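Bug: token stream looks shifted between consecutive jobs. Job 1:
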Amino acid sequence: MYISKIKIKGFRNFKEKEILFNDGINVIIGHNNAGKSNVLKAISLAIDTQSSKRLDVHDFNKHTTIEELKANPPKVSINLTISQSKDEDPNSDDLVTVGNYLIKLASPYEALLTYEFFLPENERQKYIDALSEVDNTKKAWKVVQHDFLRLYTSRIWGGDPTLQVQADSESLQKFDFQFLDAIRDVERDMFSGRNTLLREVLDFFMDYNIKNDATKSTETKFAEIKTLKEAFSTNADALLQTLQDRMREGKGQILDYAKQTGASFNHANPDFDGSLSDVELFSALKLIIEYETGITIPATHNGLGYNNLIFMSLLLAKMQVNSDGNYLGSNAKVFPILAIEEPEAHLHPAMQYKFLKFLKKNRDEKKKVRQVFVTTHSTQITSAVTLDEIICLHNENDILSVGYPGKVFSETDEDKKSKAYVQRFLDATKSDMLFAQKVILVEGIAEELLLATMAKYIGHSLEDNHVAVINVGGRYFSHFTKLFDTFSPYAIPKKIVCLTDRDPSRKKRNGGQHFEKCYPYEYCSEVANYEYAENAEDIINAFNANTTIHFFSQDKLKSKTFEYDLILHNPTLDILVTDSMKNQEEIKELMTKNYSDALNKLRTSAENDRIAQSLEASSWDEDEKKKALVASRYLNSVGKGENALELCNILEENLLLPENERKTFNVPQYIKDAIEWLLQ
């Protein structure tokens, strides 16, 4: 069985929302305050028998009106649906554990646990009367806190909650919910045998070679372990007798003081005695780390991240102890669940990736932990799991949405191809698109590096608005827009901008095999001899009415690519000519000339001849031709990555100059439009 669904109503930032879970690993991601930790807390309220069930006034969802508060006392309701696993062992105790909570008997069965925190019905009228004169929500919540919160009660219902049948504690005890929060004191929790966690683990795994021997009967194992315990006790008695012998004279002195103070009143004389079992000796054990050199150090001297890994391994071992029926009998847990909040808090990126891989392997192979929930901000962790294992929480204008990246893809061949591509693509850098509040998808590294700087020139900060710029490495937008297109109920409904180049091209009508790139001033200039095409118009129109995704590109008739448009909007700005470019002096000179003089300054080459002839044949005016000439030469002289990095540094330095010294840089219009739409 597994927790397949949770419905949270009235709890913290959840006004009312349902979340679907996987049978196995569930990685819950989202930006700060999206509600990731609240999901884990909600699960624990329903099934963790060790946690307090009382809530504070701030645990109620506060996005409510005064009218709603006056009509009904605030209430928290958490429905946890438990479903049959696909490969569930029919001989397991799963069905027996949730048998009293079933709401669906047919396979796959479903059971329901409902946690409620509510004001009893007999206090309802007092509440209605108390709020009748309150005129705002702030005062209303104060009344709830001061006058009624103490009267609230909690219940866990099993099965149909309308029947209000309380879940029996014996079945609830079969759930083993282990929660590791982001702030934990692992030194306190594990490094000495006096601690319950380490003590229980050591006790279970002692004599494990006997306990785990499948060839021996239970009686044989018991007898062998009993013999070892008795042998230990005999040896321990000899040790204790040695201590008694060494203390004989000293004990007389100690006890003499006791007699003098009156401690031997009524012929009762204090003395020392005792026995020592193998379990009691655990308190003398301390966790150490031994290196290959043979040097040992206390675990308390390790780094916090390393010790967290050790602690998690001990916790997994404890869960194995808790679920072992041979060891605990009827007290054994049936359904172990591990919940980890922000494992990246103490682990460097490589260890985060390795840790998630380990959890998956442990769950799949050892099957000691049945279901794992992880909340994270780490792109390293999301890169270690599949799309199907990721759940995205997104909060926009106090509206909480849930997205499932793996579920947005259908079973068609096209969607299977897209899903496989996105899965391969989402490494630790690219998966930032799942965490950001808004996303700009671009074709190449130049846009990726320069967009944040360009936003500053128009008075915006992409960082402050939590915008991620992701380079998809070409025209592969269609694979990624499926993640965010709200046409699917599983999509992540965040705003997405896609910046695509026009890239005009043409093909000869007679004998042309392929479309070849052309310049804007060549586009549609010889329709009798060429077929023409460009990249952007159809896809821009396709998403025109989409509320979350928009495509933007350069001017259809005047532009070509990002680099071309950069100069088209800044035809005289020589700081854009970087050290890594070819033809630097020529381009700078062209920037200072009028069209006719610039045309005469062109170097002789086949490509330059084509540019000159095409410009002369066009109907554009001389100003347009001059800009196109410089843009064409710039485009043909620029390298992608190094030039973009240099441009970024140049434009950032220009921004730092006093306003009277700063050179004017015009952000290309389509980029300006895209940023304005994204941030509006």
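Job 2, same session, no restart:
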Amino acid sequence: MNLDIREIPFSRFGSYFCISKEKDSEDVYIRDVHGGDDAPSKLFQVDILQHGVEQVFEVKSSEVSLSFYLKGERVAEIIMTEEDELHIDVEDVELRLRATKGKYDSLMELEDGMFEYHIYPKELKLMIVNLTGELLVDAPWNIIGNDFIDIRMKEGHFVIESYRTVYQKKEYLPFTQGKAQVERLYKDWFDSMNPRMTGTGYLPSLERASYITWSSVVHPDGVLKDYAMYMSKLWMYNIWSWDNCFNALNLGEKHPELAFAQLKIFMDTQDVSGAYPDFVNDKFISYNCIKPPIFAYVYEQLMEKNDYFKDTHRLKWVYESTKKVMNYYDQYRTFQGRLPHYKHGNDSGWDNASLFHVGMPVEAPDLASFLVRTYDILSSFAERLGEKVEAVRFKERADKMFNLLIERLFDEEGFYGSVGKNAEKIEIRSSLILRLPVLIGYRLEKDVMDQLVSDLEANFETKYGLATESVNSPHYKDNGYWLGPIWAPVTYLFIDALKKNGYEEAGNRLRDKFLELTLVGGMAENFDPHTGKGLVDTSFTWTSSVFLLLLADKVRGD
């Protein structure tokens, strides 16, 4: 694959290093995603010089290496042999690294050909090693740090290795061997995405999705006790709750341990209240927003994909953790006699959806539906675990909440939300979020489901799938985040619900539209529903994971 690093950063499985190009300036940067997307990521700007003069160069990247070209000739190449190692091979030119340093950042020579760079804001150190070439460094000291750092690499093999505290000397693989090692690793991953899919006509999307999911993983560090698949290494470099579940679902069949790790990250950081964090990175845990519970929904599907998830110990872990989540909503998000509520649009994952334009808190039918579905699944988990009394109790809780949902948030026009301490009806009913009760279609009357499906087809379905705001709504907005664009996880939820509740034709039609969408808009965070253009972050893992799940479904169906 010819990788455009303006859209998809060059990286590898397990690494915090990545390389990308600025869309406006076309400047190329070596970056590091420690600290999440609130931390500075740029380490060095990369330039190519010939006879001391900056040259206009071309960058070409594959899944395993990134190369620099002058007048069609390759002059430098970068690979990531190991997770914390960046290897650079230079021929006939100087590759210059200019540090984007802070006040206290400091570079020092420890011995011939070895410079240690301390990066204070990231609590990170780099060892820059000259293996076979010429390393020239200009970094004048000024009391508390270097005025600037200019590093030039000529004619040879160089390594930049990152670490937290102490550098351990080692023998580095020769460049060609290191490249071959990465090629083998990536081939194994790509093959695991199911080679039967390569003949379906979706190869460009398959290549993007496979690479994005592989290259967006970071290794255990700090808060992260296991490998984590970030949403992206372009802009959104954290692991978010809810998002993580769709990645786990795609990994479940061929990479069950990694799939379980995506869930365990949040179970391990669950608050005493029962709430999962909104997001986690190697340095920070945020509980600002609490997403709806879908762990049980996903785990039920994972058990169908791989017997690994039927293990009693793992099932019990998810079961007990999910019980705490449900207790959180019962104790801390529910007013007496009412349904659980959101305190911000971000709680729902639909940050700026029109349902939330009136105010807060909001009782929403999607949240109630997720909870009903979770109680139903907990009941089945309890049966499997031999907890008969609990199974009955959870089914009763599901029944009670379902009845309350119909009583409080449903009328002849469909589902709606309520707002504020007095639970006033929200008149805005044009968001797709109000149609998510399809998730509990097995509990709804057939005429209610028929009405929901007809509504989807008439007011939300576009050339490429389901818009998140009715295309006829005054609130619809181009590139409006949740006010129109198509999102992968929501698409998956609707397709899954439709196919499981007797609307297979509609589900398959939406599936095929999404697959076609990726050929137009790539693996973006979201998409224009009319043109298919990829919007916001263009290198998103949950989009990639949903694509792979839906493609696998199509291959099985065909």
